[in-house]
Each structure stands twice: as C-alpha cells, then as structure tokens.
TrEMBL record:
Main location: nucleus
GO CC list: catalytic step 2 spliceosome; precatalytic spliceosome; Prp19 complex
Protein name as annotated: Pre-mRNA-splicing factor spf27
Coiled-coil region list: 61-169
Lineage of source species: Eukaryota, Metamonada, Anaeramoebidae, Anaeramoeba
Length: 213
C-alpha cells in the first residue's frame, strides 16, 4: 500500500509552533528514557589509549621494543626450552620438583621441535611465498568489496539526488495548487459575501414594494 509513498524530506520546514515543539521534545525525552544507559555511560566503558597502554602485558611490550630496535626475533620460550636442554640432570640432584620441571620443559621443547618440523615440511610443500599469494588474494577481495562499496554509495547518492529533484518538483506543484486553492477559497468567500449582499438588497426592495402597496 505504501511502497510508492515518499515524504518530502528535502522540503520539510522547521517547526515554528511552540506547542508542537513541546510535543516533539516530549517524544524525544520518552525515547531517551527507554535506553538502558546514557551516552556518557557507554563512552566510559571504552578503554582509553593511555589505559590500554598500561594494561599491555610485558611480553607484548618487549616484542614491540624488539621490533623498534630491529633486533633478531628470539622468543623467551625458545630460550627457556634451550636452557632446559642444556641443563645437566646431575645438577638437579635429588630434588623431585626440579626434576619434574626439567622433564616438563624437555617435553615442551620436544613439542616445539615437532612444530618446527611441521612448519619446515609445509614450507617445503607449498613454498615460502605462499603467504604472499594469500595476501594478494586478500587484497584482491578487499579491492573488490571496496569497489562494490563505492558503486553502492554512488547509486545511493544518485537515488538521493533523484528523490531530491522529484520532491522539489512536487513541492513546487503543491505550492502552485495551494495558491490556486487559496485563490478559489478567497473567490468563494467574496462570491458568498456578494450573494448575501444581493439577498439583503433584494429583501429591502421587496419591503419597499410592500410598503407602497
């Protein structure tokens, strides 16, 4: 029923009547009260940049520092595994807890070596530049959607321009018809007044004729 209905959004005038403004403001306040939180309460939940920097863990800070100084990437856990392998079992002695810790680190080191072997096999099978191909595909996909977004934005802008043109055109027609309506109302009012005056004059003439008889 309303699929072809389009309000004259580009032609709407500002509300001037105080009573209407008051009703609109009342509706706004009622809608705001429906919200669980205020805008400021939502903003407080967003972590500030300074707070974020303070909450960054030591590992990430060290890694950022390493990147800035362009040092070779040697992660702490690799050094930990290497220290575990180089640690002499005789130095542990009869300490059971240290022995368990030593064995746990050696198992972790072994698992780390397995992961390195898997990575090496993957590099051997797919090549070292496979990630570049994936990145290229991602860039192509990104560019495709960027072009699609731009196309959609242009279509939306074209539609809005068309709507504005049609609305302004219809607004002129409405103004023209409104003027014609006002003119007709004015003419009808004048015609009615003239008819009333003629009736009064006619009745006055009839009274004069009756008086002469």
């Amino acid at each position: 029923m309303f699929q072809n209905l389009d309000f004259l959004a580009y032609c709407d005038t500002q509300i001037e009547k105080p009573e209407i403004k008051q009703k609109v403001q009342k509706l706004i306040e009622e809608e705001k009260r429906k919200s669980i939180k205020t805008i400021n309460e939502y903003l407080k939940e967003i972590t500030s940049q300074d707070q974020f920097n303070q909450e960054v863990d030591d590992f990430l800070l060290k890694e950022l520092e390493r990147i800035q100084k362009e040092k070779e990437n040697r992660l702490d856990f690799e050094k930990k595994y290497q220290d575990a392998v180089e640690l002499d079992l005789d130095s542990v002695g009869n300490d059971v807890e240290k022995m368990k810790e030593k064995i746990s680190l050696m198992k972790q080191s072994l698992e780390n070596q397995k992961i390195k072997i898997v990575n090496t096999e993957l590099l051997s099978e797919y090549g070292e530049n496979l990630h570049l191909q994936f990145n290229s595909n991602l860039n192509s996909t990104k560019q495709f959607y960027a072009n699609q977004l731009q196309k959609n934005q242009e279509e939306i802008q074209e539609l809005n321009n068309k709507r504005m043109y049609l609305q302004l055109l219809e607004f002129k027609n409405i103004e023209k018809m409104e003027k014609q309506w006002n003119d007709l109302v004015s003419k009808n009012f004048k015609t009615r007044k003239a008819c009333e005056k003629m009736n009064q004059e006619f009745e006055a003439l009839n009274e004069v004729k009756k008086a002469k008889k």
